[in-house]
Amino acid sequence: MQIQLMTDSSADLPKDLKQKLQIITIPLFVHFGNEQYTGEALDTVTLLEKIEASNTLPRSSAPGPHEYYQAFKACPIDKPIILLGVSEGISSAYNHAKMGRNMLLEEEPNRKIAVINTKTASPGLILLLNEAADKIAEGYGYEQLVTHLEDRVDHTITLFVLRTLDNLIRGGRLDKVKGAIAKTLNIKLLLHASDEGKVEVLEKVRGDKKALRHFVDQIGDYISNAENKVLAMTHCNAKERAEDVLQQIKQKYSFKQIILSDVGPVIATHTGEGGLVISFFKDK
């Protein structure tokens, strides 16, 4: 591939797609107290078991600018690089990547390195990386592809439905009293990635089945025709649940391609077990 695509551990790429597209992944980190793991060194099931046995929620963190500098420098000097990583709105990774790029450009100013704020993660990154690879195959050059991807970022919709509120409560993202009431009333949260790339609540729904119906129905708020579109979905240790929802999506929308993948440990610290995330490009 004449352009090197890069991402990070929040992309949750299926292994076959990662290998096919020859994507380089820069690891993010998961911390349990004094223990630190890279996103690739810890599987999601083990992470969920550790969360269940622990009194505190793990946290994720980004690599420093030097790690990005090293990753960029390791690529051939004449090969343009495009990094599509986790949203600036939820991680310092984007700013660290820009700093690493600038460090290398001071040494090698003729390098072509684009660091794009995707305003998404997980299936949103799968969607954008898949789109990038398709356009490279069509013959897009570096500048043309960067412009195209920046436009696609503005059209990327990322929606979440959570089965449990435990991670939000234990992580301090949801008040314990409000969380306890919501759990008692069987309230499920439907969330989305905002225009700034932050995760925000769209709707509170009582009951899991109703929440999943609303989750599927929301797609129609953004698209009128899915025939030429790709949908990516990731799930947190809930393949059967994900496949059931995908069947509902297929019955209602005619996406040309659907990509399903597991949530990795970095994103699992936020979604909790059973969480589902989908991404697709909205109509212009």
- Total number of domains: 2
Order of SSEs: EHEEEHEHEHEHHEHHEEHEHEHE
Give the strand order, joined by hyphens, for the main sheet.
10-9-8-13-11-12
In whole angstroms, the N-to-C terminal distance is 29 Å
- Rounded to the nearest angstrom, the radius of gyration is 19 Å
Number of strands: 13
Determine the structural class based on helices, strands and strand pairing. alpha/beta
The helicity comes to 40-55%
List segments where confidence is low: pLDDT < 50 over at least 5 consecutive residues. Answer: 173-182
Largest sheet: 6 strands, mixed
Q: Outline, from the CA principal axes?
A: globular
Polypeptide structure, described:
By secondary structure, this protein is of the alpha/beta class. The protein folds into two domains: 4-154, Rossmann fold; 156-281, Hypothetical Protein Tm841, Chain: A,domain 3. 40% of the residues lie in helices and 24% in strands. The protein contains eleven helices and 13 strands. It has helices spanning 15-21, 44-53, 65-73, 93-107, 123-137, 142-154, 166-170, 176-184, 208-217, 239-252, 265-271, and strands spanning 4-8, 24-26, 29-32, 35-38, 59-61, 81-85, 113-117, 156-161, 187-193, 199-206, 230-235, 257-262, 276-281. It has a six-stranded mixed β-sheet with strand order 10-9-8-13-11-12, sandwiched between helices. The chain has a four-stranded parallel β-sheet with strand order 2-1-6-7, sandwiched between helices. Helix 3 (65-73) crosses helix 4 and helix 5 (123-137) packs antiparallel against helix 6 (142-154). The protein is globular, with a radius of gyration of 19 Å. The chain starts with a strand and ends with a strand.
